[in-house]
């Protein structure tokens, strides 16, 4: 079971501190006039990777509304759930109901193929459960056009998570890829513990490269590299990405999936995007999620934090409207007199989703940016109320 599962620009000094050797190929995203292919794509994993570790039972309607709110806020790649055994991951038992809901049907009708609602399948049985659902065989509007599979980069984590070796887990995925091809489903691969394992310690980057190559050779269009226990730092990602490229998996086919246990996830993501050529980042609204095999490990890096960091760095993403290049204002997502209204409004809407789901779960919002934006909003509301009160006295 899986529990945890983009032109050259002038670089700020902190980028140079983590530079790769001069002989290595360096890449950077332009801060303006970027073609769509150079945008960073965010994959929202909160409804699956985030919620699967919650202890209290979450109503299906809450899961569906979370996906609705995320899509309304601008996200177009949102994991909808997983077809794993309810015995091991009870929070995902209602994935079929989520996919079959009228609300998600409406989203698919509205957004068409621009909306991706992937689901995780651990094996052939999980894929069969998806394919048996009414409507999945629709040529025009299937329940989902994409599945995700997972494997570990370390033997210790593989045996704890899947009760088999890495080689055995890859072998078990071969029929999943074959059936997915037959059914016209895209397959995304996840690789866990690419930088460190709670059982085996440091993971050899060459092993990560081998696993990434195996997934690509089987048909994965993209391989998401997971720092499952959050020990990664920018320099550590250099070796991992280089090892994957040496095995024939280019950075453009990789995604960064960072957990923020030691507070280094955003630094790693900005390094991967601006220096290493990675174009896809996984994130979770309100930093939902965690790793049960690593005591004290916090959840995924929050979507709000990633969107803010990218926008404030002048890096385009597929979540917010592109900034007006001539303005040159990196903080417009915060609003204010010099801000661009649409981007600020959309950013606040995204942060509100994190506040909402945190309240639904009865927990503190794990996003630093989300909490800061809530404080700004509450202060603005107090100031507006004070002004209204002053006018009423006139």
Would you write up a description of this structure?
The chain has 394 residues and is an alpha/beta fold. The chain folds into 2 domains: 33-312, Aldolase class I (TIM Barrel, Alpha-Beta Barrel), CATH 3.20.20; 332-393, no CATH class. 42% of the residues lie in helices and 10% in strands. It has an 8-stranded parallel beta sheet. Strands 6-7 form a two-stranded antiparallel sheet. Strand 3, helix 6 (124-131) and strand 4 (146-152) form a beta-alpha-beta unit. The radius of gyration is 21 Å and the shape is globular. The N and C termini lie far apart (65 Å). The model is unreliable at 1-37 (pLDDT under 50).
Q: How would you state the average pLDDT, rounded?
A: 87
Low-confidence stretches: 1-37
Count of distinct structural domains: 2
Pairing-aware structural class of the strands and helices?
alpha/beta
Helix content: 40-55%
Give the CATH superfamily of the largest domain.
Aldolase class I
User: What is the percentage of strand-forming residues?
Assistant: 5-15%
Structure annotation, total helices: 14
The biggest sheet, with number of strands, parallel, antiparallel or mixed sense and barrel status, is:
8 strands, parallel
Would you tell me which CATH topology of the largest domain applies? TIM Barrel
Q: Looking across the biggest beta sheet, what order are the strands in?
A: 1-10-9-8-5-4-3-2
> Helix and strand string, N-terminal first?
HEHHEHHEHEHHEEEHEHEHEHHH
CA-CA gap between termini: 65 Å
The appropriate CATH architecture of the largest domain is Alpha-Beta Barrel
CATH class of the largest domain: Alpha Beta
Mass-distribution shape = globular
Count of strand segments = 10
Biased composition (Basic and acidic residues): 378-387
Enzyme class: lyase
GO molecular function, one term: metal ion binding
Region (Disordered): 366-394
């Amino acid at each position: 079971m899986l529990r945890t599962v983009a032109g050259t620009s002038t670089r700020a000094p902190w980028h140079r501190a983590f530079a790769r050797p001069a002989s290595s190929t360096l890449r950077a995203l332009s801060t303006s006039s970027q073609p769509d292919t150079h945008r960073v794509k965010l994959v929202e994993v909160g409804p699956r990777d985030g919620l699967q570790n919650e202890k209290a039972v979450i109503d299906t309607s809450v899961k569906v509304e979370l996906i609705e709110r995320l899509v309304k806020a601008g996200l177009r790649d949102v994991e909808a759930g997983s077809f794993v055994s309810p015995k091991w991951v009870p929070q995902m038992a209602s994935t079929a109901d989520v996919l079959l809901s009228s609300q998600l049907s409406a989203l698919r009708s509205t957004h068409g193929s621009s909306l991706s609602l992937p689901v995780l399948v651990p094996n052939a049985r999980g894929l069969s459960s998806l394919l048996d659902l009414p409507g999945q065989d629709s040529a025009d509007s299937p329940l989902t056009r994409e599945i995700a599979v997972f494997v570990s980069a370390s033997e210790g984590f593989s045996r704890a998570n899947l009760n088999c070796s890495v080689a055995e887990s890859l072998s078990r995925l071969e029929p999943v890829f074959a059936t997915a091809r037959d059914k016209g489903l895209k397959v995304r691969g996840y690789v866990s513990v690419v930088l460190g394992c709670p059982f085996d310690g440091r993971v050899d980057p060459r092993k990560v490269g081998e696993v990434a190559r195996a997934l690509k050779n089987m048909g994965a269009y993209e391989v998401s590299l997971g720092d499952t226990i959050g020990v990664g730092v920018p320099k550590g990602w250099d070796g991992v990405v280089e090892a994957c490229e040496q095995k024939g998996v280019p950075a453009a086919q990789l995604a960064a999936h960072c957990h923020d246990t030691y507070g280094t996830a955003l630094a790693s993501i900005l390094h991967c995007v601006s220096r290493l050529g990675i174009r896809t980042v996984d994130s979770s609204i309100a930093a939902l999620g965690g790793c049960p095999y690593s005591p004290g490990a916090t959840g995924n890096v929050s979507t709000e934090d990633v969107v803010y960091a990218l926008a404030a760095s002048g890096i385009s993403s597929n979540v917010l409207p592109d900034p007006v290049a001539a303005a040159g204002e990196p903080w417009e997502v915060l609003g204010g007199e010099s801000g661009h209204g649409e981007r600020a409004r959309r950013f606040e809407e995204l942060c509100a989703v994190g506040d909402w789901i945190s309240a639904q779960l009865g927990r503190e919002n794990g996003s630093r940016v989300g909490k800061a934006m809530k404080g700004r909003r509450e202060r603005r509301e107090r100031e507006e109320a004070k002004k209204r009160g002053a006018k009423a006295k006139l």
